[in-house]
Amino acid sequence: QVQLQESGPGLVKPSQNMSLSCSVSGGSISSGSYYWSWIRQPAGKGLEWLGRIYVSGSTNYNPSLNTRVTISRDTSKNQVSLKLNSVTAADTAVYYCARIYCSPMTCYLDFWGQGIPVTVSS
Amino acid sequence: DIQMTQSPSSLSASVGDRVTITCRASQNINTYLNWYQQKPGKAPKLLIHAASTLQSGVPSRFSGSGSGTDFVLTINDLQPEDFATYYCQQSYRILFTFGPGTTVDI
Questions:
Q1: Do B49 and A106 touch (CB under 8 A)?
Q2: How far is CA A26 from each of CA A5, A31, A39, B47, B66, rounded to the nearest angstrom?
Q3: Choosing among B96, B98, B102, which should be mutated to test the A contact, i.e. which has the most A CBs within 10 A?
Q4: Which of residues 37-66 of B touch A (CB under 8 A)?
Q5: Which residues contact B64 (CB under 8 A, 6 or more apart)?
């Protein structure tokens, strides 16, 4: 059973850079036909997909974040990371990491971490 | 971006009821449509993928249908543990987008 666990600071000051990690157990982030992604959810609001990284290391991002977001991986630690630059209060949310499985006819988020709340405030 | 809408935004139901939630995509997404259930303070849980395929371990009272732009999630014989918020999500494009959610409460 794949398990994901997010970690990182719960409080970030405006204009600073935020870094979160997602530790994966029960499966390797560098094998299989999987993507590893980040999604966020402001309190009381809906879900926003931020981006993903493939087993090959290739990435895709949500254009709404422009160039502020970077997703990377550390295969030796079996971790995926999210970096969001120049944060503002609008980036306050619960951040989730999740695995994406894709086949020719379907693509879905099948395993999720429990989420980590991040507040942007001075 | 593909925009996803859901209706209703919320509904009240009773145990044993049949509930129907509609999701609409702004363009044809074939059957690249997934449904998730989220309870307060928890991560979303995958219920249905490819519009109508039940995820392993999900009770058979959940079902999905549709293709193209219009999709439906049906919950038969609503159980107490089904009171939650439900989201649809398209995976037709690399930029995944979610519907705004439908809250099912008592």
A1: yes
A2: 12, 12, 21, 21, 34
A3: B96
A4: 42-46, 49-50, 53, 55
A5: B33, B35, B47, B48, B51, B52, B53, B54, B71, B72, B73, B74
| Cβ under 8 Å to A: B residues 1-30 | none
Which of A119, A40, A29 shows the shortest CA–CA distance to A82? A40
Region of residue A113 (left: phi > 0; alpha: psi -120 to 50; beta: else):
beta
The tens place of each residue's pLDDT in chain A, 122 residues long, gives: 999 999 999 999 999 999 999 999 999 998 888 999 999 999 999 999 999 999 889 999 999 997 999 999 999 999 999 999 999 999 999 999 999 999 888 999 999 999 999 999 99
What is the Cβ-side half-sphere exposure of residue A59, based on CA atoms within 13 angstroms?
16
Q: Which residues contact B34 (CB under 8 A, 6 or more apart)?
A: A106, A108, A109, B46, B48, B49, B50, B88, B89, B90, B91
Helix (H, G, I), strand (E, B) or coil at B16: coil
- Asked if omega into B8 is within 30° of 0 (cis), the reply is yes
For the sheet containing B70-75, what is the strand order?
Answer: B4-7, B19-25, B70-75, B62-67
